[in-house]
Every structure is written in C-alpha cells, then in structure tokens.
Amino acid sequence: MEAIGQFVPLILIFAIMYFLLIRPQQKKAKEHAAMVQGLRRGDQVVTQGGLIGKVAKVKDDGEIEVEIAEGVKVRVVQSTIATVVSKTEPAK
C-alpha cells in the first residue's frame, strides 16, 4: 500500500502537466490545421516569416501561391501560414 502512496504525487504531476501543457498544444495544432485547410483564393494571410499577402492560388500538394505585391507571387508551404487576417466570402 505504501508503494502506491509514493506514486500518487508523481501521477498527479503528470496529470497536471497533461492538462496545462500537452492538451492546449494539441488543441492549438488542430485549430491551425483547420485554418490551413480552410484557406481559399482571396484570403489575406500572414506567413510565419511575416509576409502579408493575398492567396492567389491553392494547390493540392500542400503549397499556396501568395501575392505579396501587385504582380509578385510567391509559393508558400501551407503549414507556414500563421494567421488569416481577413476571409473572403464564399461564392454563391
């Protein structure tokens, strides 16, 4: 019985670590993945590198084309999009 009593604090520490660190990180990762999957042409985005631009084209291979200035388009890996500044309305 004493052996179990010695492990209770250790188990509590792992439970607290899970709820304070691991679970919120997993939730944030799921939200980011959903945001990246919801990208469409015309959305204004910010990359992790700090570039701000409009999505010109969404490709199937995990890349998007972002127009950072008029006539200047760069290829960006979808997962490097940090935030979506403004969403476009879906076509009806």
Explain what this protein looks like in three dimensions.
The chain crosses the membrane at residues 6-22. This protein is an alpha+beta fold and 92 residues long. It has one domain: SH3 type barrels, CATH 2.30.30. Helices cover 39% and strands 33% of the residues. It is built from 1 helix and 5 strands, in the order αβββββ. It has one helix at 2-37; strands at 44-47, 52-58, 63-69, 72-77, 81-86. A 5-stranded antiparallel β-sheet has the order 4-3-2-1-5. The radius of gyration is 21 Å and the shape is rod-shaped. The chain starts with a helix and ends in a 6-residue tail after the last strand. The relative contact order is 0.15. The mean pLDDT is 91.
Shape: rod-shaped
* Strand percentage: 25-35%
CATH class equals Mainly Beta
The strand order across the widest sheet is 4-3-2-1-5
Transmembrane segments: 6-22
Protein name: Sec translocon accessory complex subunit YajC
GO biological process, one term: protein transport
Pfam families: YajC
Keywords:
SH3 type barrels; rod-shaped
SSE blueprint and pairings:
Blueprint: H1 2-37, E1 44-47, E2 52-58, E3 63-69, E4 72-77, E5 81-86
Antiparallel strand pairs: 1-2, 1-5, 2-3, 3-4
Membrane topology: Single-pass membrane protein
Transmembrane segments: 6-22
GO cellular component, one term: plasma membrane
